[in-house]
User: Which sequence fits this backbone?
């Protein structure tokens, strides 16, 4: 099969006028050059078209032909690039109910205008394959409208304009004797013929009629031979005249594109035009995806036209990703940004006859996205306040822990210092004891300093991600809670293996905050339940892609009706003076949102067991 491009059919024809031309100049040129159209151009680029049908309407409405043509021309034109295939152009004509296609080059300059007949003649082989008889092409849409030969031109014009007809048959005693077409009207308009004249003086007669049992191929040959655009067929079974044009043959060749589209895709075109969504249909040529049809709202709101590449609307980089997703999955569901607005885009990839079709639905969600972003910021502010509140609560507990931890080293320092003073006063002071006593004082002072550093790091506000040794975070948590646990006779069972460090990328101090929260909750419940020999046991397990930190107590567990609520905001079983309901809530937020892990709890035979699951660094 020979591949035929539109550029192969372009013939040099003088069919353009500039945007200062009048309607009279348009009509004169159409008549003199026997044209069915005039293209209005500006700097070699087509900006509008005037067809025979337009002139019929102007003549019928008594428009002043001295007016500028551009003021009446159709500016919303369909333009195809010269490298498009013939069948693609025919589909575009049928789909938009037009008979002419403006052809442009790669820089959008005008190179010609093709009519259905030009393209149909190139497809004779396909027409012969159909082997259709003309009576099979007759249907209500091409049934001839008849007027009497004594009717006026005014009446003929009204009939053609009202019904958007390209021609009417003229009859005498119910027998077709002539035809009035748009081309005839052009010549009458140029001469400004009185519309009250009788049509029989201006009709083409005799008419060119073809037998209903002739083939579509015979019809094409007849049209080419006589250089006509329509033929008359009399259907004996229906006792009716029909006017057949290239459009009827084109519809058969393409399998009636519009009906096929309506039956195979999601809904009719009229329904798409009623939608508030933007609907765009693309044809995939492999090299690019071009716009073949849009609904009304798309046409009104986006600066795109038919046959534009979709990358005129959606950026090339973004479209390449969307297109690949369509190829892989045949469907698409994304939120994208176009011209500073956000759209939820749904897509479907399918096929029709020999064409690959992409259907896009765009829903403007800019306001929703903006509201979501605003709510997100408000939630972040709220979480920050809650985090700070929880931090303050923990800070109070940490101060208590520090007070416990400082008692012993302060006592050692004061005892050593007073011992030196006492020995010196009573003459028992020995110079060789000084280094040992100074070491004792320095070790205790360093311990105090280390405790302050640990507390300061815990309170740091700046969130910096870095590689952290998990065992170090656990050890720091024990160090900050050790004194208060010891003072309440609660034992820490440390099963952590410190010999094989495990690194994880996290915000320093956040894991400690979670562990301390859990330990403090365990401590409180052990004290509340008067558990003798209370203990808190910790384990660290390394899995394939995660680590699991477990913290278990022997306080008897959490009641089943409570355990499902313990991570909820402001939920607490403590009284107002000791509980805020923020500790476990914030711990859950830290683990899931910041550390990308999970925090959950279960009851064991001993008590409650908390699980901190974190992903390993890759």
Assistant:
């Amino acid at each position: 099969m020979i591949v035929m491009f539109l550029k192969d059919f372009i013939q040099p024809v003088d069919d353009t006028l500039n945007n200062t031309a009048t309607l009279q100049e348009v009509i004169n040129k159409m008549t003199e050059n026997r044209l069915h159209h005039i293209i209005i151009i500006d700097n070699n680029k087509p900006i509008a078209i005037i067809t025979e049908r337009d002139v019929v309407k102007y003549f019928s409405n008594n428009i002043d032909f001295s007016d500028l043509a551009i003021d009446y021309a159709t500016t919303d034109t369909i333009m195809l690039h010269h490298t498009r295939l013939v069948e693609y152009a025919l589909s575009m004509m049928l789909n938009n109910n037009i008979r002419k296609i403006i052809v442009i080059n790669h820089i959008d300059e005008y190179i010609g205008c093709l009519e259905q007949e030009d393209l149909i003649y190139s497809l004779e082989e396909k027409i012969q394959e159909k082997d259709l008889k003309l009576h099979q092409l007759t249907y209500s849409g091409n049934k001839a409208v008849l007027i009497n030969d004594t009717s006026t031109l005014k009446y003929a014009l009204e009939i053609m304009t009202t019904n958007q007809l390209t021609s009417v048959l003229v009859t005498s005693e119910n027998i077709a004797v002539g035809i009035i077409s748009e081309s005839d009207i052009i010549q009458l308009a140029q001469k400004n013929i009185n519309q009250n004249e009788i049509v029989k003086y201006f009709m083409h007669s005799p008419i060119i009629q073809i037998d209903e049992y002739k083939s579509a191929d015979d019809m094409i040959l007849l049209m080419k031979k006589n250089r006509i655009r329509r033929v008359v067929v009399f259907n004996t079974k229906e006792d009716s005249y029909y006017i057949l044009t290239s459009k009827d043959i084109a519809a058969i060749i393409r399998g009636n594109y519009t009906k096929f589209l309506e039956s195979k895709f999601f809904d009719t075109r009229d329904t798409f035009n009623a939608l508030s969504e933007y609907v765009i249909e693309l044809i995939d040529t492999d090299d690019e995806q071009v716009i073949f049809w849009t609904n009304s709202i798309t046409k009104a709101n986006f600066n795109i036209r038919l046959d534009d590449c979709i990358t005129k609307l959606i950026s090339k980089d973004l479209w390449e990703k969307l297109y690949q997703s369509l190829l892989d999955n045949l469907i698409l569901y994304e939120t994208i940004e176009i011209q500073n607005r956000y759209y939820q885009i749904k897509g479907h990839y399918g096929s029709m006859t020999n064409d690959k079709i992409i259907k896009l639905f765009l829903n403007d969600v800019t306001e929703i996205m903006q509201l979501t972003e605003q709510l997100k910021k408000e939630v972040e502010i709220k979480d920050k306040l809650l985090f700070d509140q929880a931090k303050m609560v923990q800070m109070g507990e940490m101060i208590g822990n520090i007070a416990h931890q400082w008692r012993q080293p302060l006592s050692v320092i004061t005892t050593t210092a007073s011992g030196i003073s006492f020995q010196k006063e009573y003459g028992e002071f020995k110079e060789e004891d000084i280094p040992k006593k100074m070491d004792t004082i320095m070790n205790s002072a360093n311990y105090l300093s280390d405790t302050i550093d640990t507390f300061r790091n815990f309170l740091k506000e700046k969130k910096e991600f870095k590689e952290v040794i998990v065992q170090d975070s656990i050890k720091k948590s024990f160090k900050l809670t050790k004194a208060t646990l010891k003072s309440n006779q609660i034992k820490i069972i440390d099963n952590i293996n410190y010999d094989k460090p495990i690194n994880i990328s996290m915000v320093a101090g956040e894991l400690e905050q979670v562990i301390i929260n859990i330990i403090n909750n365990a401590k409180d419940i052990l004290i509340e339940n008067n558990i003798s020999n209370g203990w808190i046991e910790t384990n660290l397990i390394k899995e394939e892609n995660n680590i699991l930190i477990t913290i278990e107590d022997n306080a008897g567990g959490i009641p089943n009706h409570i355990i499902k609520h313990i991570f909820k905001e402001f939920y607490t079983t403590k009284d107002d003076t000791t509980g805020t309901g923020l500790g476990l809530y914030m711990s859950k937020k830290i683990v899931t949102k910041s550390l990308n892990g999970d925090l959950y709890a279960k009851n064991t035979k001993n008590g409650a067991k908390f699980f901190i699951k974190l992903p390993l660094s890759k």
Remarks:
- DSSP finds 19 helices and 24 strands in the chain.
- Residues 489 and 534 are 7 Å apart (CA to CA).
